[in-house]
């Protein structure tokens, strides 16, 4: 157990560390102008990963597990899963790339040449989608530390490139693609032994009727994730119109909460997905829900132990008038965002579990409710409380989202025939 936790900790460090360091390295080595350009180009990766890649990986875990539980060999299951997500992922990545380039081109932040660099990053994002079945197989096999730990390759490659060749400028994004190619090679090598393990096992195929999701469910996930990202843009747009320094203080506070959320994902959600996928893949929805409920309750308890005292400490800091105003603002923002990390953590787990249950149809309606709350409540509170009002709207929005997903999961599980349990 300790060895497993240590592997997950190392994987989290390798997977997330380079991404957190990248902006600091770019600013220090390239200077503000060149750094800004590379960071803007990498917005394609951030949006593409949030909207398309994460959905593709969750889809791959669910589908692959169902194939394996129904006696299909691992190699064939990988091919079938890839065949299902290849075209929808391409459509999703192209749509994100076009919207990203168009937005920044209209604003004057991009020149025509940047379309080439953006296309390279889009290709990298698509490669991540294509290899998601490999990552999914490792997750199902209980080796989630491998796909997690290799996520940082893309950023590490860029860091090494700009440190050695700072004159690269925007061309450094070529190494972003190179990092993902290296990750693909590592995942391919890692899954070869796992394929042999699965194919050599004597597990009996499930007798339950096989249910597979179609491409339409992937588009539902993409659309939902896109709406969620739009709510983030609403939040940032409002905050950027606030006092000088507000967006910077918000970013710092957001990173504090982000670390907690990512730790919860790495240590709680990602390792647990194997059990959820196995049970739901065998059409044992009640058993899968019982496992999901136990795992998430335990995870949220651990998160609360960190988030609540952290929020209290941050609020106390915000009340210390002897500290600089910026430090006080960061403390106040972090206090709200740390509490908001609790429902966000549940949403992270619930969305992945809903994919396994075939409940993607709930994603878009819930996302619409979420963004309506962000717009209506957020701007109303922003006019009265400023930045913290918008952050309180995020807390309310994510709490409502968590409750709606909880209700959707219970509804799907309750609909399962008793004899299938």
Description:
The protein has 421 residues and is an all-alpha fold. It has 2 domains: 2-199, no CATH class; 270-420. Helices cover 83% and strands 0% of the residues. It is built from 15 helices and no strands. The protein has helices spanning 2-30, 32-41, 43-69, 74-107, 114-130, 132-140, 145-149, 153-164, 173-200, 215-240, 246-281, 285-318, 325-357, 363-385, 387-414. Helix 1 (2-30) runs parallel beside helix 8 (153-164) and helix 3 (43-69) runs antiparallel to helix 10. The longest helix has 36 residues, at 246-281. The radius of gyration is 22 Å and the shape is globular. Residues 206-210 have low confidence and may be disordered.
Q: Report the sheet with the most strands, covering strand number, pairing sense and barrel closure.
A: none
Q: What is the overall silhouette?
A: globular
Low-confidence stretches: 206-210
Q: Considering DSSP H and I runs of 4 or more, what fraction of the residues is helical?
A: over 70%
Count of domain modules = 2
Mean pLDDT over all positions: 87
Secondary-structure-based class equals: mainly alpha
Helices and strands, in order, run as HHHHHHHHHHHHHHH
Oligomeric organization of the protein chains: single chain
Number of helices: 15
Output the radius of gyration. 22 Å
The count of strands amounts to: 0
Determine the strand fraction and express it as a percent band.
under 5%
How widely separated are the two ends? 29 Å
């Amino acid at each position: 157990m300790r060895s497993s936790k240590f592997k997950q900790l190392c994987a989290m460090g390798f997977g997330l560390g380079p991404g957190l360091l990248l902006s600091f390295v770019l600013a220090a080595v390239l200077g503000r102008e060149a750094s800004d350009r590379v960071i803007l180009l990498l917005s394609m990766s951030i949006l593409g990963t949030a909207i398309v890649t994460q959905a593709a990986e969750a889809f791959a875990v669910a589908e692959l597990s169902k194939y394996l539980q129904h006696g299909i060999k691992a190699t064939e299951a990988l091919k079938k899963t890839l065949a299902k997500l290849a075209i929808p992922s391409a459509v999703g990545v192209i749509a994100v790339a076009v919207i990203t380039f168009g937005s920044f081109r209209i604003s004057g932040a991009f020149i025509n040449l940047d379309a080439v660099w953006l296309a390279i990053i889009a290709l990298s994002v698509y490669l991540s989608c294509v290899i998601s079945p490999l990552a999914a197989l490792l997750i199902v096999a209980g080796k989630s530390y491998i796909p997690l730990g290799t996520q940082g390759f893309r950023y590490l490659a860029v860091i090494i490139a700009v440190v050695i060749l700072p004159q690269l400028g925007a061309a450094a994004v070529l190494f972003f693609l190179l990092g993902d190619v290296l990750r693909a090679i590592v995942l391919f090598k890692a899954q070869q032994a796992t394929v042999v393990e699965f194919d050599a096992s004597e597990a009996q195929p499930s007798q339950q009727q096989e249910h597979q999701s179609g491409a339409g469910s992937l588009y539902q996930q993409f659309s939902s994730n896109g709406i969620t990202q739009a709510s983030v843009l609403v939040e940032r747009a409002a905050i950027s119109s606030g006092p000088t320094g507000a967006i910077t203080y918000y970013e710092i506070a957001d990173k504090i909460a982000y670390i907690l959320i990512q730790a919860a994902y790495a240590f709680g959600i990602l390792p647990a997905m194997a059990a959820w996928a196995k049970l739901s893949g065998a059409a044992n929805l009640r058993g899968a829900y019982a496992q999901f409920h136990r795992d998430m309750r335990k995870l949220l308890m651990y998160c609360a132990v960190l988030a609540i005292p952290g929020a209290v400490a941050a609020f106390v800091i915000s009340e210390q008038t002897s500290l600089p105003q910026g430090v006080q603002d960061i403390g106040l923002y972090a206090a709200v965002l740390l509490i908001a990390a609790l429902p966000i953590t549940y949403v992270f787990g619930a969305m992945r579990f809903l994919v396994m249950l075939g409940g993607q149809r709930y994603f878009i309606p819930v996302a619409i409710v979420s963004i309506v709350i962000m717009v209506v409540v957020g701007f109303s509170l922003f006019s009265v409380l400023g930045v913290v009002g918008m952050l309180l709207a995020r807390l309310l929005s994510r709490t409502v989202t968590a409750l709606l997903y909880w209700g959707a999961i219970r509804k799907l599980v309750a609909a399962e025939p008793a004899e299938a349990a």
